[in-house]
Structures are given as C-alpha cells and as structure tokens.
Design a protein that fits this description.
The protein has 76 residues and is an all-alpha fold. The protein has 3 helices and no strands.
C-alpha cells in the first residue's frame, strides 16, 4: 500500500466520522485518537505549505465540512 492510498483511506475515515458524528475526532477517546492525530498532522502540514496540491484540495473540503459543525458561542 502506497502513502497516497494510506492517506486516502485515513481521509475517508475522518470524512465519515465527521459526517456521522457532526464533530471532530477527540484526543480523549482512544478509539478516535488515531483520527485526531491524522487531522492535526495534516493541519500542521497545510499551515507549513508542505501538503501536496491534490491533498490540499481534498483537505480543504474536509475542513469545510468540519466548519459546518463548528461549535458556536451561545452567549454571543
């Protein structure tokens, strides 16, 4: 399995998790921790501009889905 295939597999798992649970993976639950690490690592790579262009486009779509379920301050 190539790195691209592994990245794609993790991407799909995180996408399914966010769409079903309406939240990001948590670092506090063991079953979600690997997804959380993958998400944090790719956020760091994107901010350093080390993420390849084809992955960057897919990751932006993932972040858009995540932004849809972002928590909103109820007191504002």
């Amino acid at each position: 399995m190539t790195q691209s295939e592994r990245w794609q597999m993790q991407y799909e798992q995180v996408m399914v998790f966010i769409s079903t649970n309406h939240r990001r993976p948590s670092k506090y639950y063991a079953e979600e921790r690997l997804l959380w690490h993958w998400l944090r690592r790719n956020i760091k790579l994107m901010s350093k501009v080390d993420l390849p262009i084809e992955r960057k486009e897919k990751f932006k779509a993932l972040m858009a889905l995540d932004g849809k379920y972002r928590r909103v301050n109820q007191f504002k």
